[in-house]
């Protein structure tokens, strides 16, 4: 006695994207078959990439202009912070303690400025703003420090431009400053990745 309908009982199913891959896993929203590579684990179960993307599109509602605002707010606030950090010698410990909360404040300001709209790339844009703004703030601070020292030594004389390599090495050898920028970047990245 054999199974009367072996084909029906044992039907093979294949991934909707990769027809050569046998799978029995289905998207729990649209019910299409998907191979392990096509499946995305979500808090509500396995879903196909298309359904995940659709879900994200509802969540991400930022315009191009919002990206500009997020970049600008992150850059300006971090720039001001970096200028302060590099002018007053704050102990490393304080930066370790205050870095993340200050980063959280920067992210919150950027979110408020855009009415909390976010895009797929808001976190990257915010981090870019933090790094660019932080370095510019530090460069400006070091340069004005240089100008004031020169005018103290030789008042009234024309100030020769500071060589770029000296400017770069003084900024990048300031561990407090680099740590400050890095911690703000981490906090901002984390804040923008959070779903709420
Ligand atoms: Zn689906
Ligand atoms: Zn597949």
Characterization of this structure:
The chain has 196 residues and is mainly α. The protein has 2 domains: 54 residues, no CATH class; 130 residues, no CATH class. Helices cover 62% and strands 4% of the residues. The chain is built from 7 helices and 2 strands, in the order αββαααααα. The chain has a two-stranded antiparallel sheet. α3 runs antiparallel to α4 and α5 runs antiparallel to α7. The protein is elongated, with a radius of gyration of 27 Å. The termini are far apart. The mean pLDDT is 90. The structure holds zinc ion (2 copies).
Summarize the structure.
This protein has 196 residues and is mostly helical. Helices cover 62% and strands 4% of the residues. The radius of gyration is 27 Å and the shape is elongated.
Mean pLDDT: 90
For the report, how would you describe the main beta sheet?
2 strands, antiparallel
Helix content: 55-70%
According to DSSP, the number of beta strands is: 2
Ligand roster: zinc ion
The best one-word shape is: elongated
Give me the secondary-structure topology.
Blueprint: H1 6-9, E1 39-42, E2 45-48, H2 49-59, H3 64-87, H4 92-113, H5 122-153, H6 164-172, H7 175-193
Antiparallel strand pairs: 1-2
Helix pairs in contact: 3-4, 3-5, 3-7, 4-7, 5-6, 5-7
Features:
2 domains, binds zinc ion, two-stranded antiparallel ribbon, 196 residues, mainly alpha
């Amino acid at each position: 006695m054999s199974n009367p309908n072996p084909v029906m009982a044992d039907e093979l199913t294949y991934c909707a994207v990769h027809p050569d891959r046998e799978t029995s896993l289905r998207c729990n929203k649209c019910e299409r078959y998907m191979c392990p590579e096509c499946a995305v684990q979500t808090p509500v179960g396995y879903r196909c990439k298309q359904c995940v993307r659709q879900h994200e599109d509802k969540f991400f509602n930022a315009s191009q202009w919002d990206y500009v605002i997020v970049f600008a707010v992150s850059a300006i606030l971090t720039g001001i912070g970096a200028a302060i950090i590099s002018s007053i010698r704050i102990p490393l410990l304080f930066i370790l303690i205050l870095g993340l909360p200050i980063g959280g404040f920067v992210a919150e300001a950027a979110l408020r400025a855009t009415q909390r709209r976010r895009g797929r790339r808001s976190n990257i844009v915010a981090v870019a703003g933090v790094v660019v703004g932080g370095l510019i703030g530090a460069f400006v601070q070091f340069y004005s420090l240089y100008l004031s020292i020169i005018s103290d030594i030789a008042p009234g004389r024309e100030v020769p431009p500071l060589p770029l390599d000296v400017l770069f090495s003084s900024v990048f050898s300031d561990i407090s400053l680099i740590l400050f920028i890095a911690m703000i970047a981490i906090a901002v990245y984390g804040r923008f990745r959070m779903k709420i």
